[in-house]
Amino acid sequence: MSSGDTKLQCYNRSCGQLFDPAENTSESCLHHPGVPVFHDVYKKWSCCEKKTTDFTEFLNIKGCTRSYHSNIKPVETPKRKEENDKEVYSSPKPMQQRDAVERPDPNQPMVHLPFSVGASLKPVLEAMQKEITLEKDPENDSIVQLNTPCQNKGCRVVYRGEESNAETCLYHEGMPVFHEGMKYWSCCVKRTTDFDSFLEQIGCTTGKHKWHKDKNMEKRAKCRYDWHQTGNSVVISVYSKCPLPDLSFVDANPVKLHIYITFGKEKTIFDEELILYGVIDLEGCSVTYLGSKVEIKLKKSEPLGWKDLTLRDKIMDIDAMTIQDK
């Protein structure tokens, strides 16, 4: 039997190579023994000092430790017991003053709100696509080094020569989302709590490999937004010129909203989470992408006036959340 017939898949983080057990030594595998850490806008490995704001660059950080290859998948470390017991001793609940019915739990699962594209945005998107198509791609004249990883999100292929350019690339055109312990791509329905399973999710879009980084990657901005209400609804307007519907989403549960908008030619990202002042009926909510803004229409569960859009003491900013698998 040839050595090629006995090759196994290495599951050490950031390795992913095939290896022959007969040739496996303590110097064979270059990997990360730690866990991924996501804090503010930075992404890093707990075993390394290097950190980055770009998710693809994070996935391409070379391992910091050499040891044997392993064909055993890492076991997700359970949360420490003390973390689960933090809420055992809680302060007395304040006297209920506003809601006629019990307020739903803000940690309920969230769903994508249905959306439509307004007439004012469609010609802008078409013009942008034509402009991108007509631009000369400088990457065509660039030299690609062997073993350069594909920069498309979710693709793990490396450049092996000209034949790599003819391959079909499977990648995610959306953005990675880490929310309430769940990990998923904004372009996919599949969700998981395990980081390694998230990394192994096969792309949902086909195209060509991209061997060079975009000049503008994951640029974030704070967009201005306002709101108004009627007896039965609340309308939020987020002012973001030329939003990209395919790279954006709005998630909601009865008392919480997660707004993720990608807009403009540079694909700038607005990412915000709001704890709503009142309770909404998800069946009557919708999103409309317009030329200069995104309108989010929320149906009130009861025809009561809202004193404000949010409960300000409970507003959470996605950029300030700490998501750490330890």
TrEMBL record:
<keyword id="KW-0862">Zinc</keyword>
<dbReference type="GO" id="GO:0046872">
    <property type="term" value="F:metal ion binding"/>
</dbReference>
<dbReference type="InterPro" id="IPR039790">
    <property type="entry name" value="CHRD1"/>
</dbReference>
<feature type="compositionally biased region" description="Basic and acidic residues">
    <location>
        <begin position="76"/>
        <end position="88"/>
    </location>
</feature>
<keyword id="KW-0677">Repeat</keyword>
<dbReference type="InterPro" id="IPR008978">
    <property type="entry name" value="HSP20-like_chaperone"/>
</dbReference>
<feature type="domain" description="CHORD">
    <location>
        <begin position="10"/>
        <end position="69"/>
    </location>
</feature>
<dbReference type="Pfam" id="PF04969">
    <property type="entry name" value="CS"/>
</dbReference>
<dbReference type="Pfam" id="PF04968">
    <property type="entry name" value="CHORD"/>
</dbReference>
<feature type="region of interest" description="Disordered">
    <location>
        <begin position="75"/>
        <end position="109"/>
    </location>
</feature>
<feature type="domain" description="CS">
    <location>
        <begin position="220"/>
        <end position="310"/>
    </location>
</feature>
<dbReference type="InterPro" id="IPR007051">
    <property type="entry name" value="CHORD_dom"/>
</dbReference>
<keyword id="KW-0479">Metal-binding</keyword>
<protein>
    <submittedName>
        <fullName>Cysteine and histidine-rich domain-containing protein 1</fullName>
    </submittedName>
</protein>
<feature type="domain" description="CHORD">
    <location>
        <begin position="150"/>
        <end position="209"/>
    </location>
</feature>
<dbReference type="InterPro" id="IPR007052">
    <property type="entry name" value="CS_dom"/>
</dbReference>
